[in-house]
Amino acid sequence: MSERTELPLGSSAHHGDSDAILHPDALQGPYYGLKALITTTQGTDTLQLLIRVDDVRRDLLSICALANASAAANTLPNEILLSIFLHIQGMVEEGTAPHWPAVLLVCRRWFVVAATAPQLWRELVVGKSLNLLRTGIVRSKGLTLRVFATHRDAVAEVAQTITPHVHRIQTLSFSSIHQRHKTDVASLLQHPMPALERLNAIIETPVTYIITQDDPWLGIDNVPLTRENFPKLRSLVVERIIVRPSSAIYQQLSVLHLLTLEGRLFDYCELRKILRTCQNVEDLALEFTFRRDEDDLDRDQVVLPRLRKLHLSGSRVFLHDILETIATPETADSELAIHLSDAKHDYIARKEGISSALPQDYQTLLPIFSAITEVHAQARQSEEILLAYAPAADGATHGCRRLSLRMPVYETSKAPPDGELRSPDLYSLPLRDLRVFSSAPVETLRIDTEAEHVHYVHWPAILEHFPLLRALSVTVCDYPGDTLPVLYAIRPTSPSLEVTAYGETLSHPAQRAPCSRLRTLRMSRFRATRDPFNYSEPWAERKVEIVPAVAECLVSRARDGCETLEELVLDLDCMDERKWGTAERRRMDLGIVLQDSVREHLVTGKMEYTERQSWRERFTYEAS
């Protein structure tokens, strides 16, 4: 083997003979410290090795030929360069900081092409600096502009800069307007904007504020949006900005978001008048806290024939009233979102959850509740989110209807006094809202919850609302939970007495297994072993035996006449490092049980058991 020739980095031999060094024919040993091919392939047919080397050599030569034949980036035609720049610009979400101006720094020709293309300067995102805004106004050469002001300190300067060019504004967005700048925005909206199609204006809530006679409200009252000044306006998203119902602008809108309007300046009657003029609205979002007056005798529903998305947020009484007012049409891909946001000081809302905000006959007023087939529940200590899906209406072959329910949970976020245990009722609160789907033909239920909820929630009471359930998936999000409560919930129970950790004695009558049509069961991030470092939980001393628990559950369901499982997936966590070596043994034991189950026709399809090392996520072993 020949010795390697050392070439200094600054020598002429290194630069002058670079083409020869990179040529495939010039590649020789010693292969940068590795053994020669002839020494690493002993026992391999030499002819096959030479054929393989020749194939690789021809592939490399083909790649080099293609690279040498392609045009250099700085010689591409202007049209191709412009299409590339526009594609790069479109890869960034609208209204966010653009990255495409970096192409101006590649070479002089790219700078000239990008700087002289008006199409690239139509979307202007303004942060702290107004340089891009001023440059884009000049280089856009009279084209319509989309202006997004993302920094609140620049709102006043942005309004002053674009005032002479308001006739060119196609999209105008102020994501955060400080109280001292709302007069600048109000003055800007006084000018006619014939090209404006979308208007977003969000006035922020200050941490501290003083209401005076000159400034009696935190928003802008009575903005004169007329059809003469805004003939093309189709999308209006405003927060703390009032456009009176007398304005005819609502008749031409397809997107309307009215957020955070105070009841002392804007009442429910005015809101109803606005809704009756929104016959073309497809996307409607309302966020209020006021309620309908008791002496309001107008109970007629408002029909919005083109409505496809309805997002409602606010207090319990407002949601109750507005759901009785708006008649939601059943379209192929409709979406309904209900957010109970003001429940901190409402005892009824905290106790009953999202069901307290629904009308008494919500299943009739909101037909989607009776058509839900799939539910995803996220139960955390801070809030609860329910996502539900129903098949498309009107016989459509594609699409689905979507329902989103969301509310905060306040009780479980407060730590109990020292030495006291939290009441089990507090932990079971986040999943109580699943009962609103009791009349729906739900076939798929996925629950993402926390370890404490897994133990305290009364699972049989939840699952009894879903007699047609076919697939159940439960995942623990924060810390691995106990598998036994869920397994015990889907099996039949015999009469028994139970003494809880709080000293209460509970009697349980005999019950049949819920969800008798269940065919798929998935449990993720549950415990395969007991956690040896956690003694604060009431179930910490209980010995976890996952294999007998699964076997007992399957056998008892079969004896109770339940349908056969087609899929069983257990994705568990090993909490004890000392028992990690027996994980394979537990998997084999469960495999034997499942094989017996197959012979007994308990599980007929996919069966999967996995364990992961969970103690590494909670502890780090570093040298002190």
What does this 3D model show about the protein?
With about 625 residues, this protein is an alpha/beta fold. It has a 17-stranded mixed β-sheet. The protein has a two-stranded parallel ribbon with strand order 8-10. The chain has a domain at about 460-624. The protein is built from 20 helices and 21 strands. The chain is flat. Helix 18 (about 545-560) packs parallel to helix 19. Mean pLDDT is about 75; it is low at about 1-35, about 410-415 and about 620-624. The longest helix is centred in the N-terminal third of the chain and has 24 residues, at about 45-70. Strand 13 (about 385-390) and strand 14 (about 400-410) form a beta hairpin. This is F-box domain-containing protein. Pfam families: F-box-like. InterPro entries: F-box-like_dom_sf (IPR036047), F-box_dom (IPR001810).
- Strand percentage lies at 15-25%
Secondary structure: number of strands: 21
| Poorly predicted spans | 1-35, 412-416, 618-624
What is the radius of gyration computed over CA atoms, rounded to a whole number of angstroms? 33 Å
The main β sheet shows up as: 17 strands, mixed
Structural class: alpha/beta
What distance lies between the first and last C-alpha atoms, to the nearest angstrom? 49 Å
Tally of helical segments: 20
Overall pLDDT score:
77
Helix content: 25-40%
What does the overall shape look like?
flat
Protein name: F-box domain-containing protein
Domain F-box: 74-124
Organism: Lentinus tigrinus ALCF2SS1-6
